[in-house]
Write a structure and sequence with these properties.
Order of helices and strands: HHHHHH
Radius of gyration: 26 Å
Helix content: 55-70%
Largest sheet: none
Structural class: mainly alpha
Number of domains: 2
Distance between the termini: 60 Å
Number of helices: 6
């Protein structure tokens, strides 16, 4: 028995369970990258326009802070990587936050309080058991 026992079955189960969610995220990321490419080709139709934009953007501290280091900005691919890179990373981070949301299960009702006061929560009882009324 190894430490990877059951990994294939578990991976297959997760992919089967979240196939729609994974597909939506992948399609959204690919569509955003494709639309960014179309937009950049529309904004900079000639190589001279790309060269002019690359020269203006290479030393712009704000653009570099938001988009990362400027590399090969005189090509469409370099512009796509520069413009889409930071936003793509944000989307991947959001995806990694929202994907495991299905693992938490359904929301459960909180247990009924044993107190006779209808407004008093179980949380407040644990914090201040000597209080007799809420709100004060």
């Amino acid at each position: 028995m190894t430490s990877l026992t059951g990994t294939v079955a578990l991976t297959r189960f997760i992919l089967r369970r979240d196939r729609v969610r994974i597909l939506v995220w992948i399609v959204a990321l690919v569509a955003l990258a494709a639309l960014t490419t179309v937009g950049i080709e529309g904004l900079f139709p000639t190589q001279a326009a790309l060269d002019q934009t690359a020269a203006a953007t290479e030393h712009n501290a704000a653009a570099i802070a938001f988009n990362g280091p400027a590399q090969d900005l005189n090509t469409v691919g370099g512009q796509v990587a520069f413009q889409f890179g930071a936003w793509g990373m944000v989307l991947v981070a959001l995806m990694s936050i929202f994907m495991p949301a299905g693992l938490r299960g359904a929301k459960r009702k909180p247990a009924a309080s044993k107190s006779s006061a209808p407004c008093r929560s179980a949380f407040m009882q644990t914090l201040s058991p000597q209080r007799s009324r809420w709100p004060p």
